[in-house]
Specification:
The complex is a heterodimer. By secondary structure, chain A is an all-beta fold. Helix content of chain A is 0%, strand content 46%. In chain A, a hairpin with a 4-residue loop joins strand 6 and strand 7 (78-83). Chain A is globular, with a radius of gyration of 14 Å. By secondary structure, chain B is an all-beta fold. Chain B has strands at residues 9-12, 18-23, 35-40, 47-50, 64-69, 72-77, 86-93, 99-101, 105-109. The chains are: A mainly beta, B mainly beta. The interface between A and B is medium-sized, with 20 and 23 residues.
């Protein structure tokens, strides 16, 4: 079965960076878009961007341009999301989520989600 | 891109049906048949329950159904059960080739 297993919670100080991993199993990583979505405490869902694991091409939400980097290592079926310049506003649970198959082009739905990684940002 | 508009809360009794609306614009919901819905229980990751406006993923109960009219998409939950109590989010493709989420609707089963 499809599974996305993320790295654990990380406490960060303002100004630091965080890199979260998302290991995929049960399907071919390079066949589907991979998205990152975050959720601040008590708030809604916020899309951060996607990576095409086959080509490595990325698309980021304008809000995160210049601060976020999404990569992948196909040899270990793992996607990564790195966010720099952290502030308290970045305190959130960060999810990786499998998108639609690459063959459909990007249309945005997320059919499998990781368990989430809590990133509290505090001095 | 502004968030899609959802009611903050809806409620219903077991066995009843409820409908959650999700209102956008012609640049998102009205322009594309790429609306999806997610159910999120407390402390859990969201779960996809509808995509492409009306399609249920394998394993999702047929008590969940989606529709769209103009700039508004709707999720109907029929035969309400206690386990349906959760927060529901809608999402749509937009003309910017990015997605937008709704603010979420808390469903309470009375």
């Amino acid at each position: 079965q499809v599974q996305l297993v993320q790295s654990g919670a990380e406490v960060k100080k303002p100004g630091a960076s965080v890199k979260i991993s998302c290991k995929a199993s049960g399907y071919t990583l390079t066949g589907y878009f991979m998205h990152w979505v975050r959720q601040a405490p008590g708030q809604g869902l916020e899309w951060m961007g996607w990576i095409n694991p086959n080509s490595g091409y990325t698309r980021y939400a304008q809000k995160f341009q210049g601060r976020v980097t999404m990569t992948r290592d196909t040899s270990i079926r793992t996607a990564y999301m790195e966010l720099s310049g952290l502030t308290s506003d970045d305190t959130a649970v960060y999810y990786c989520a499998r998108g639609n198959p690459l063959v459909r082009g990007i249309i945005y739905y997320y059919d499998h989600w990781g368990q989430g990684a809590l990133v509290p940002v505090s001095s | 891109q502004s968030a899609l508009t959802q009611p903050a809360s809806v409620s219903g009794s077991p066995g009843q049906s409820i409908t959650i609306s999700c209102t956008g614009t012609s640049s998102d919901i009205g322009g594309y048949n790429y609306v999806s819905w997610y159910q999120q229980h407390p402390g859990k990751a969201p779960k996809l329950i509808i995509y492409d406006v009306t399609t249920r993923p394998s394993g999702v109960s047929n008590r969940f159904s989606g529709s769209k009219s103009g700039n508004t998409a709707s999720l109907t939950v029929s035969g309400l059960q206690a386990e349906d109590e959760a927060i529901f989010y809608c999402s749509s493709y937009t003309s910017s080739s990015t997605p937008v989420f709704g603010g979420g609707t808390k469903l309470t089963v009375l």
